[in-house]
Structure formats: C-alpha cells, structure tokens
Amino acid sequence: MARLTIVGVGKMGRAILDAVVAVGITGLDEIVIFDANPALLDDAVLAHPTITVGHKIEASDIYIIATKPPVVREVAGEIGLIGKGLVISIAAGLSISYLEESLGTQMSIVRCMPNTPGQIAMGITALCANSNTTAGELTWASSLLLALGEVVVVPESQIDAVTAISGSGPAYLFLFAEAMIDAGVALGLSADLSARLAVSTLLGSSELLARSNYDTRGLRLAVSSPGGTTIAATNEMEDSGLRRAIHRGIAAAHKRAREMQG
User: Fold this and answer.
1) Residue 166 has what DSSP assignment?
2) Is 68 labelled as part of a ligand binding site?
3) Is 67 annotated as a binding residue?
4) What's the CATH code, domain 2-160?
5) Does the CA dihedral 250-208-201-225 come out positive or negative?
6) CATH code 1.10.3730.10 for 169-259
C-alpha cells in the first residue's frame, strides 16, 4: 500500500486531490496534504475527511509538488532530505535538472504539465521522467494523473511546446468564447443567450472534432457552403489575421516557457 503526499492544494493541487479521491487509486491507502494557506487545508479536509493534514514533510511513496514555482526549491530540499520516493512536479517552467539540483540527491522525478480542464476530469497531462524513474513508477504517476483526464508521455524537450498548446490552451478557448459572446451581444442578443449559444457550440464542436479523428479542415469545409454565412465569416477572420495571431500567441507562450526554465 502506498502513501501520497500533496504539497500545495491550490487550484491544480486541489484538482488532483479531488480527482484521486473520486476515482479511488488501487494501492493508495493514505493521502497527506500540505499548504501554507490554512483556509485551503480546511476546505480540503471538509470535502475529504479521510485525508491527513501534515505538519512537516515525512517519508512517502509519492510526493506531488503543486506549489508556485518560487517555493519549489525549498519543498524539494525537504523531500531530498528524506531521499526516497517518487517526486511528481506540476510546477511550470522548472526542468528536471532544476528539480534534481533542488532535491540534492538521486530520486525518481516525473515532471508534468496538466491543464485546468483536469478540474472536471477532462484535461490532458503531458509527463516526462528522469533516468532514475522506473517503468513501474511511471505507471504510478500515469495512474494518478489519469484522474485528471488523458495522459501522454513526451520527451522533456517537448514540454515547453506542450505548455504553449495545452497548458495555456484553455485560456485561448476562453478568449475566443468571450469574443463570440461579445459579438452576439453586439448583434442584439442577451448576454445570457449569447453565452449559451457560444459555449454549447464550442462544447459540441469539440466533441464532434474528437469523434472525427481531429479532421479540422474537413469539418470546417462541411459547414462552409459557397457564398454562405460561414465562409463569409471564416474568410473575414482569415483576412483579419486570426490564424497568424494564434500562431504568434502560441509562439509567445513557448518563448516564455523557455525563459522560465530553471
């Protein structure tokens, strides 16, 4: 049986906690949580009375570091003093080499990039591991993160690109939804109706896209009748530089992720 310690129960740390408890990971018999914010701890315990609030980091089989990046070095240093167990970090921009240096000892490390839809178990998490990590430990990490949605394994060299696409990606969709809603209001729809139309369209379209083997162009052309409303809209968006703006935004996210590398 395994002991899991989650350090940091903010948005993503709490999402992991909620998801892991909800699905019930086989072989996991104890969950311990830490956070500098007592209100977050109280709220977590209220939702999950069987978990334990830790007062100092003690030996565990698995540690999930879900703190803000500036706190990671201190947390990793405490874990490194224990010197054994699997360390999973969701801290953006902190490389495996940074984590190894912060731990100060040879430990198994999985670095991952989840996204916010994991809060409703519909996210996707990319992960990579250091050379100390065994196949069994990678399976453990994957099983935990599957509670948030899909899991993919990538080389660390691709994590910054993953961050730019899926890590930051939900905000791009929210921005597009916001623009759609604003446009509907400008056309005379109520804000509530415009939001329902936009969100339902984005939700249904995403599901349709997933079921069509990601055939973005085919689906787009299927609703773009010559001389019709859809092609008038997409032509205007293309002419206004929508595709270029998306590429530039994602490139900016990728650049910033590389700059943040520890």
Assistant:
1) I
2) yes
3) yes
4) 3.40.50.720
5) positive
6) yes
